[in-house]
Amino acid sequence: MYRPLLAIVFASLASSAVHAAPADGLRRLADPHGGLIVIAHRGCHEAAPLHGLGSTPENSMAALRQCVVLGADVMETDVRRSRDGHLVIMHDDSVDRTTNGKGKVADLSLAQLKALRLRQDEGGAAAPRSDQQVPTLDEMLALAKGHIVLNLDVKDMIYGEVVDAVHRAGAQNLVIVKTVAGVASVPLASIPPYDRVPFAVIPSTADPAAADVPAIIDNQTQGPIKPIAIELPVLPLQTLPAVMSRARERNVPVWINTLFKGFVTGMGGDPEARHDPASVWGRLTDMGVRLIQTDAVEALLLYRERTKRATQGMQTNSR
């Protein structure tokens, strides 16, 4: 019975988001008052029933288009290199799960990869084959330009090649490159290729309690140029307040994944958030988290819109 209202809410949300420039998305991401940033994990591959949209293959051009329609702020995607040196979009090191083919990405030429068809949603042998091909990074950058920020998760040791491709596309201010740093890593902001593109750091910790994450944040936010965000690894809930406090001190936003069981142990992930968004997404935002990566993109966008309207209503009533 709520579908007509939800359709109106999402229509207004999508109409404003489709025309938002990615540069504005990066500005909002860096702005402490920029609001909740919705990051679509491997694109918007899940069905979006409130929009009347079915599933799309993960990491596909269709998944990017669906993100733009829904109004996601960022699309996370994965980059690998083919046998003949082309940069392609694929999460796994093989094509087995997500396509109708088999083999390692690094063992297949671009022509062989393009001959395959992606499977719907997260793939698997039972997933229907779609009409979507494996995209190249160049194709994904061209399609995203002017519509959505891309977060590039570089899966091979090809960071320099990826950043060069970003520059050739004129997208150096329209992407976020993801990388890893440990407690002994040098600050990355001043060294190539991270000095050429916005990047996010994932702390790599050998401590099961992730107690060294604040020290990694300190080390990676030295100097005037900083990572655009800190994407947290899996860590215990009791560690999060100290991490959030250090990130606030260093003026860098925190990015948390609610994928699968969730990356904050004991809080829950997307399955729980779909049924009770306040118990997961609400708790995280109450603690100061503004960047949330999810597979449940439509549900998180709905939660953001509902909380925004509730806040505006309370402000109106208090006048």
Strand content: 15-25%
Q: How many E-type strands?
A: 11
Determine the N-to-C terminus distance.
Answer: 32 Å
Tally of separate helices: 11
Uncertain segments are 1-20
Structural class: alpha/beta
Major beta sheet, specifics?
A: 8 strands, parallel, barrel
Helix content: 25-40%
Largest beta sheet: what is the strand line-up?
A: 1-2-4-5-6-7-9-11
Mean pLDDT across the residues is 90
* Rg (C-alpha, Å): 19 Å
The helix/strand series, from N terminus to C terminus, equals HHEHEEHHEHEEHEEHEEHHEH
Q: What is the global morphology? A: globular
Ordered list of secondary-structure elements with their pairings:
Layout (H helix, E strand, L loop, with lengths): L2 H16 L3 H9 L6 E5 L19 H10 L3 E8 L5 E3 L20 H5 L22 H8 L4 E6 L4 H10 L6 E8 L16 E6 L8 H8 L8 E3 L3 E2 L3 H10 L4 E4 L6 E2 L4 H6 L1 H10 L4 E4 L2 H21 L2
Helix pairs in contact: 7-8
Compact overview of the structure:
This protein is of the alpha/beta class.
Descriptive report:
The chain has 319 residues and is of the alpha/beta class. The chain is 35% helix and 16% strand. It is built from 11 helices and 11 strands. It has an 8-stranded parallel beta barrel with strand order 1-2-4-5-6-7-9-11, surrounded by 5 helices. A two-stranded parallel ribbon has the order 8-10. Strand 4 (149-154), helix 6 and strand 5 form a beta-alpha-beta unit. The longest helix is centred in the C-terminal third of the chain and has 21 residues, at 297-317. Mean pLDDT is 90; it is low at 1-20.
Descriptive key words:
eight-stranded parallel beta barrel, 319 residues, two-stranded parallel ribbon, alpha/beta, 11 helices
